[in-house]
Amino acid sequence: MIFHKNYLVNALQLIIIVILIGINSYLWRKIVRLNRDNVKLKTDLVSSNQILELIKQQLESEKKHKKPEKRTHENKLFEMNNNIIIHDDRFYPDLLPLTEDFAVSQRFSESHPAIDLAAPFGAEVFSSGSGIVIACSIDKYLGNVLIINHLNNYKTLYAHLSSYTVKVNDFVDKGDQIGSVGNSGLSSNPHLHFELNFQNKPIDPEKIMSIPTVKVNP
Predict the structure, then answer these.
(1) In the predicted model, what is the mean pLDDT of residues 137-163?
(2) CA distance 45 to 50
(3) CB-count burial class (<10 Å; 0-12, 13-18, 19+) for 209
(4) Which one of 10, 69, 99, 128 has the fewest beta carbons within 10 angstroms of its own beta carbon?
């Protein structure tokens, strides 16, 4: 009877030991799997960080070696206007730039791609159309020169001025005063040298505006 009891105790102890071994084995496998996943996660994170760092370095390198885009003054002006060609009568340069007494002293020709309007010194000069002033400069021959971009492929040039009333980048409306008649540059008498350009080619202003036929010193 005592032997039988000892057998049962030993059997129970053996079963408990087997169960404990199984539990320990399961827990160990679990721990090993968790450690392996953790190592993989760390590896993935390192790889991602390395990739991001490489991209960052590449972008910084491209930024350093990127050549600056050449932008002319007119490019900037067109950017300001979203590269849109404006279709509006106010921008069409068909207004006479002088309103006081004047007379044609020289008409448009191949050798003289402009029209000269003789007028009193200091007479007001007006913009023939709305637009943006893109140049106010001094030329050896044309004297004080002012150029307006009308944002519709037309540009107008006003030369031999005595003074300006506007500056570069100013927006002017059709009929605004932009300067005064003068005798600057290579000029013998006060007059306005007026040029009209379409797509950077000179055209006769009389094709789009009415100018008196009177001519001084024929």
Answers:
(1) 95
(2) 8
(3) middle
(4) 69
